[in-house]
Amino acid sequence: MVTVQAKLIFEGGEDKQRVLDLMRRWSSCMRYAYKRLLEGYKRNELKRQLQGIFNLNSRYVDDAIMKAKSVLNSCKERRESPKKVIFGGRQLFEKLQKRHINGDQYRKLQLKWQEKRKGNLYSRGDRSKKGNLNTRIEIDGSLTKLRINVGEKEYVYATIQPGWKVKGGTYRDRNQLLQAISTLGEPYSVELKLKNSVVYAYFTVEEIFPKSEITKSNGVIGIDTNAYPKHIAWVETDEQGQLLEYGRIPMPELESGISSKREYYRWQYAHMIVEMAKDNQKAIVIEKLNIKDKGKRGDFSGRKSRRIRHYFGYRLLLEKVKLLAKREGIEVIEVNPAYTSLIGMLKYAPQFMVSKDVAAAYVIARRGLGLRERIPHNYMMFLSRLDVNELEELKEYVRKVVKNTYVRKKQLREIGRVIKFLQSLESEAERLSVPLDGTSTGSRGENHNLWRVLKVAVVTPLSPDRVLRDMSVLKSLLVSGQVGKTYKGVSSCFLGQGLWLSQKPPAGAGKA
């Protein structure tokens, strides 16, 4: 959907007043319909009744009932009480109840709340009427006007002032876009809102996309978004999933700044990704993100993490990529992002000597092609020798060595889950019979647990107190099944081989 925001200029004060009266009656009709829906009334019962009460035609009444239903359904989806809805905004309403606010400040808040409560009008488009019957865009020479039905065959004309925001895309000439919408004959919806005594119009039309000609049959480009540091990791593969090229796009502009600036740069980065796919004739594979609040305060691991994710806007960026790709006829494939970073870190980062983010993008690309990830043979042999007692020993070691409370709790919790998983496997035969793909439908799948077991058993001993960045240490184990080089002074003989960790003295120790 493309939404164009514009300001309405009326020829006289009387025309504007008639439109404001229409908006007031429609808003009252919508609130009245909402109350009746709570009481169990049906649409057909309400429609004729509301026309007489609020002096509105059947189309306006139908749109008011539809809006009331959408508010009701939204409350049910959020598991909130529909009876506690406050039209005009709960936050403003609660501010007005505070006794310490008075004078001009109180009157401004009251005016703002009344405008949000009473200054609304919505009119749906109709394909059979070639656009919108109640609020129609008309071209008058060089001007674009909006014809508003305010009564029985009574209309008010308002000039549409171009140059305002467009949601869902970027266009150089908004006036030209509105004229194109009016002449195509496609249905478009119009919503009027009153803000600071000015009437704004929002025109929404469904965009028609061309058929996707660039598909995954030519290969794909996998995209992995990363909030810290802010960048996009990308990989290009052929149709069989073989790695061709990779890189990263840093995005420092999304670190801070006003929302309009960040929005502008999101569009720029989305254009870069789509142009890359278009030049290489590849489909785009992205993560199907469903970001939910985590942690006690609902802010992931703290205030810093919450701020990073707020400024980055994963979903906003990926939605722009999807929209621009559809306009160019490029296929966009969304995949489940679960365990992509973990699989990439353990399997492809040491194999191709790339960063974890690039490896995660490669896993995403392969999922888009329908390929399934299996644990390499040497890793599987390593898991078959893994012992619960050694994990218990690792648990005690982490408890003693790691000073960071947050990291220690996370590591201990992860090791505990792995121990429970291994204890649930009664024999070697049962352990090896577990499916080894890394693309299970649920996060509790046993195959995913095997990747988690591998992470705890291999990565945690190497770097128990911090995130391991250099994955090249795993290459020897991945390729030959042998222990690789040490990491930052830690001598490691992996779990399952009967030896433990010992700290090496720093360089130069013991010298005079």
What does this entry look like structurally?
This protein is α+β, with helices and mostly antiparallel strands. It folds into three domains: 2-205, no CATH class; 216-368, YqgF/RNase H-like domain (Nucleotidyltransferase, domain 5), CATH 3.30.420; 377-503, no CATH class. Helix content is 46%, strand content 18%. It has helices at residues 13-38, 43-54, 58-77, 90-96, 103-118, 174-184, 259-280, 303-312, 314-327, 340-352, 356-368, 377-384, 388-401, 405-424, 428-432, 446-462, 475-480, and strands at 2-10, 120-123, 135-140, 143-151, 154-161, 166-167, 188-195, 198-205, 220-227, 230-237, 243-250, 283-287, 332-335, 490-491, 502-503. The longest helix is centred in the N-terminal third of the chain and has 26 residues, at 13-38. The chain is elongated, with a radius of gyration of 30 Å. The termini are far apart.
- The rounded distance between the terminal residues' Cα atoms is 73 Å
Helix content: 40-55%
Name the average pLDDT.
77
Tell me the major beta sheet: 8 strands, antiparallel
State the domain count. Answer: 3
Structural class: alpha+beta
Number of strands: 15
Q: Which value, in Å, is the CA radius of gyration?
A: 30 Å
User: Strand fraction band?
Assistant: 15-25%
Q: So what's the overall shape?
A: elongated
